[in-house]
Design goal:
This protein is mostly helical. 51% of the residues lie in helices and 6% in strands.
Length: 187
């Protein structure tokens, strides 16, 4: 009986969560690599939003050591990475080294740049580079820098709460500063 039920769910493109007893439609794998890129970008927006929100005054100037980048420089670099990813996607590869903005302006730039990238990925426009290259370069590097900012927040005495990100409600296309509330945080 269990196997027959699972076969019916698969046939109708449904997933069943036995723990929550929830049956919801699975998202289509439309252009699988492109959808995964959009989910990675949404993950970056969720994690980035968490670390950028509520940073203490002066955090943009905070640095872990004399030879390291200040947090504002890392935030500017994040904007540069996202702009670069968009330029790679649309075939006009271009890199800029931007000067740091205020923390609030840098945060706005982050979300503006990530939305522009996601809008392009959501469109029917062709990708001018392989999706794997977009992920392994700018997107993976951006995730690394968001992690750096999270670590620096802790070092600066303003930690963000840990979270089980596997349970977070991260949805492709949700790339603004307004994100779902965390489902399972911990200290």
């Amino acid at each position: 009986m269990y196997r027959q039920y699972r076969a019916v769910l698969r046939h109708h493109n449904l997933a069943y969560n036995w723990r929550t007893m929830d049956s919801t439609p699975e998202r289509p794998a439309s252009g699988s690599s492109r959808y995964l890129l959009r989910h990675a970008v949404a993950t970056l927006a969720y994690r980035g939003g968490k670390v950028l929100k509520g940073a203490p005054p002066g955090f943009a100037e905070y640095r872990a050591g004399d030879t390291t980048r200040a947090c504002g420089q890392i935030l500017a670099h994040l904007g540069d990475l996202l702009d670069w990813a968009l330029s790679q996607a649309n075939g006009k590869q271009d890199w800029h080294d931007s000067s740091p903005l205020t923390w609030d302006e840098g945060t706005k730039r982050f979300f503006t740049s990530i939305k522009a990238l996601d809008d392009y990925l959501a469109s029917d426009a062709p990708l001018a580079c392989p999706p794997e290259k977009l992920f392994q370069g700018a997107i993976a590097d951006s995730l690394t820098h968001v992690g750096q900012l999270a670590m620096l927040r802790r070092l600066a005495g303003a930690p963000i709460r840990g979270e089980n990100y596997a349970q977070a409600e991260i949805v492709a296309g949700r790339v603004s500063a307004q994100q779902s509330p965390p489902r399972r945080e911990f200290d």
